[in-house]
Design goal:
Layout (H helix, E strand, L loop, with lengths): L7 E5 L4 H12 L3 E6 L18 E5 L12 E4 L6 H4 L3 H22 L2 E7 L26 H21 L3 E6 L2 E2 L10 H10 L4 E4 L5 E3 L1 E2 H13 L8 E3 L4 E3 H12 L5 E4 L14 H7 L7 H17 L1
Parallel strand pairs: 1-2, 1-4, 2-3, 4-5, 5-6, 6-11, 7-10, 8-13
Antiparallel strand pairs: 9-12
Helix pairs in contact: 1-6, 3-4, 5-7, 5-9, 7-9
Bound molecules: nicotinamide-adenine-dinucleotide and uridine-5'-diphosphate (UDP).
């Protein structure tokens, strides 16, 4: 695998969950990192450990507005990812995905940068093909409460591929599946952080629907490794490429594993299933395995142990 030499790398959404891990990884690899964020769901605290590093810079900026800087590579991660947060201001969510993509692609075109898009398994919507392969076009409601995110991300993919076809821009599109780990906000609203916080506080675990819906959870270090490898891959590799852990589990089973891992006394509290909640989700990662020689290394049990330990520390502060 070719590693790219020291470069100036822009990470949008760099003060968020995945972005902060990516900034840390890129600095470790010897790059100069410019983290751009409007702190909608992210925060300065997520990257405060990097402030003393002279190769790290933090800029408050909303990517729905143009950005004039000089960089060699762009990782475009800016966008709220939790349904609670992206549905809070759905118009801004679509703007972030669509205007944000146009601005980052325009920047990449002007400075000749390679540009990576953090796309999502939500491209597949509530899928009828299982597990999901990259050539599946998906089943997405265009007018529902999840549409601002799903359709915004689909439109961003369209823009990335049109810039690539029309202007030969080097692009990398990763379809990221549910990822968890240290650094998630306790009030993020996604299932892993919700369950862990509830279990550690011995509060009822909020299970939506009957809990038979499935997800496949990837530990953050594995995800970042896959994204870096995709960015480093040959120009001919554009994606879209699934990056995730194919170990599928029902949400109800996840609740039991989290309760066990936390040694919790929590009970289960059933809540209504949110509209358009996908019934099943599992990546086919054969393309990433073959092209990037990548596959996840961290089991759900091990990843949860590390994540629970981190949340335990946060809650005791
Ligand atoms: P997150 O909400 O923790 O981070 C998103 C970051 O983007 C935050 O720091 C937020 O403040 C910033 N942001 C939002 N709108 C912005 C704007 N207009 N301008 C500048 N910054 C803005 O979410 P995350 O889990 O770290 O997700 C990062 C990316 O990965 C997102 O694009 C998301 O769609 C994608 N993704 C994540 C997952 C996952 O499971 N974590 C799954 C699929 C896709
Ligand atoms: N979920 C749940 N309880 C929660 C949060 C989420 O049962 O407190 C369910 C949710 O309905 C979905 C799954 O867990 O079926 C994953 O939800 P999340 O918001 O993490 O991500 P999604 O994959 O739906 O975008």
């Amino acid at each position: 695998m070719r590693r790219f030499p020291r470069e100036r790398v822009l990470v949008t959404g760099g003060a968020g969950f995945l972005g902060s891990h990516l900034c840390r990884r890129l600095l470790r690899d010897g790059h100069d990192v410019l983290c751009v964020d409007n702190f909608y769901t992210g925060s300065r605290d997520n990257v405060s450990d990097l402030f003393d590093d002279k190769r790290f810079e933090l800029m408050r900026h909303d990517i729905t507005f143009p950005l004039y800087i000089e960089v060699d590579r762009i990782f475009n991660l800016a966008c709220p990812a939790s349904p609670v947060h992206y549905q809070y201001d759905p118009v801004q969510t679509t703007k972030t995905s669509v205007h944000g993509a146009i601005n980052m692609l325009g920047l990449a075109k002007r400075v000749g940068a390679r540009v990576f898009q953090a796309s999502t398994s939500e491209i597949y919507g509530d899928p009828q093909v299982h597990p999901q392969k990259e050539d599946y076009w998906g089943r997405v409601n265009p007018i529902g409460p999840r549409s601002c995110y799903d359709e915004g991300k689909r439109c961003a993919e369209t823009l990335f591929f049109d810039y690539h076809r029309q202007l030969s821009l080097p692009i990398k599109v990763a379809r990221i599946f549910n990822t968890y780990g240290p650094g998630m906000r306790p009030d993020d609203g996604r299932v892993v952080s919700n369950f862990i916080v509830q279990a550690l506080l011995d509060k009822p675990i909020t299970l939506y629907g009957d809990g038979s819906q499935t997800r496949s959870f990837c530990y953050v270090d594995d995800l970042i490794e896959g994204c870096v490898r995709l960015m480093d891959s040959d120009d001919a590799v554009t994606g879209p490429m699934n990056i995730g852990n194919p170990a599928e589990i029902s949400v109800k089973e996840l609740a039991a594993v989290v309760i066990e891992c936390c040694g919790s006394k929590s009970s289960i509290e059933f809540r209504p299933l949110p509209q358009d909640d996908p019934f099943q989700r599992c990546p086919d990662i054969s393309l990433a395995q073959k092209t990037l020689d990548w596959s996840p290394q961290v089991s759900l049990e091990r990843g949860l142990e590390r994540t629970v330990a981190w949340f335990r520390e946060q809650l005791s502060d």
